[in-house]
Amino acid sequence: MSKHLKKSNIWVYLGLMVLLVLFFATRLYRFGEVPAGFHIDEIGASYDAQCIAHFGVDRYQVRFPVYFQNFGAGQNALYTYLGALLFKFTSFSPKKFRFIAVFCGALALLCTFMISRKAFEERKFALTAPFLWVVMPVILMSERWGLESYLFLSFTAMALCLLDLAAHSESKLLWVLAGIFTGLCLYTYGVSYVVIPLFLIIIYVYLLWLGRVRLKETLLFAVPFMLLAIPLGLEQLVTAELLPEFSLLLTDFRRMEFSRAGEFGFKYFLKNLDEIGVFFTNDFLPYNGSARFGTVLYISIPFIILGLLACLKRAYSSLKQRRFDFSVVLMVFFLVSFLASMCMVQLNINRVNEVYFAFVFLAAYGINSIWKRFKITPLVVLVLYMVFFVPFCNYYYGEEYNADIAADESGVLFYNTDLGVAVKTLSDFYGGEKQVNIISNDAEERHILIADYCGTSPYEFDQAYSTAGNYYIGLPEELDISGDTVYVIGKNLKHIADYLALEGFTVDAETYPDYYIVMTP
What we know:
Blueprint: H1 3-28, E1 38-39, H2 40-55, E2 67-68, E3 75-76, H3 78-87, H4 94-119, H5 128-135, H6 137-142, H7 151-167, H8 172-185, H9 192-210, H10 215-239, E4 246-248, E5 251-253, H11 269-273, H12 300-320, H13 326-342, H14 355-374, H15 378-397, H16 400-407, E6 414-415, H17 418-430, E7 435-439, H18 447-454, H19 458-464, E8 471-473, E9 485-490, H20 494-502, E10 506-508, E11 515-519
Parallel strand pairs: 7-8, 7-9
Antiparallel strand pairs: 1-6, 2-3, 4-5, 9-11, 10-11
């Protein structure tokens, strides 16, 4: 290896280290505060994760489900099981649960770099796609909170990286890992049930045509993939009432209360043509993006268009020469995922999140093609992106982004965690010797949040929203003034707090803005 090539490699890896620092800085700054609150799907998934970790059942007492019921329509399982693994060894907190997204995003960034090293011959282009992964708003925002469907984006990067590495090598382990991670994609989001099989069929034919796969590679990939896919297939048959509910080994297969099969179909394609701008601007959910900055930063759009043309040209050339090239893999994944997205009942950024993997690489192809032709320096690209990225950061990390969420009706999906913190704090302080009575108009809506913080057994949770007598939700027929009960009371029920104050209780109105903490003196 020449000295020049060694020096080039050093600069590439130094650049990667800088990008990793920028990644963690952008993902962890004001982490847990932006977005503010805890989303209802995060609450459900994190409580199910605790139940699985400590009891081996979800909150409905279903043993190790492959698809969680959540609030009736189902919830993808992978994020919950990653949470269960985490909570097996540590206590619950929203930040810990959200850090799973950061961790998976970091792995995806590294995988993006590994793909780039092979996809672009010149080393100096290897950092373009990882840089875009760090700065694109939709990716940055998705990796700061625990919406389980966004894992499809991260695991797409991991699966395609392993598939690309396997296709370039003779390694049996890489083919097995590619099969495992591609199978895990099915547990991230329901649209993967369409995207992944179609993508694999086309790519398998492509690799077979190139002579890159034989029976050995096929089995090494297919066996772990099918072992992961079959349980989900059985769950779908149960929900469709084509199979009765049953149990197999450690898993219970139970019918969902609502089926989401009707959310996908070709009938939605023409309607979604009118909404195609959602991919680049924003949708009806402010926590997914802002029209002011777009999902990919508007500077990326011309690069994505140029990259699409460059990628098509490169893919065509490689097909003519009958050689393997990532551009073909990328175009197949982009077309399959884009068409599947257009068949969703309503275009929604988190529902089509895997498309942004393709957009990252298409933009990288576009930037690199201009870079080659006009000999522009990386500094020019960096300055162009900073002109868009810095104002986005000012918006996102300031108060404006949280204010936009709170002002929209979708903001009610983010719950203030004060109630859970208060009940947990009081339960720990009194060590279970006193019952905590929660009296608030919104307490029953937040009973999962309280159970989350208190680590409530799913068996007790389903029966009475209480845990071994430690807490109770609701207004009792008669308030206990004996001193055996402490209270968490909503601020709109001041008269109850005033009555208890007259009975000698101390009232803390400062610690939690929305609640009175009423304790015995």
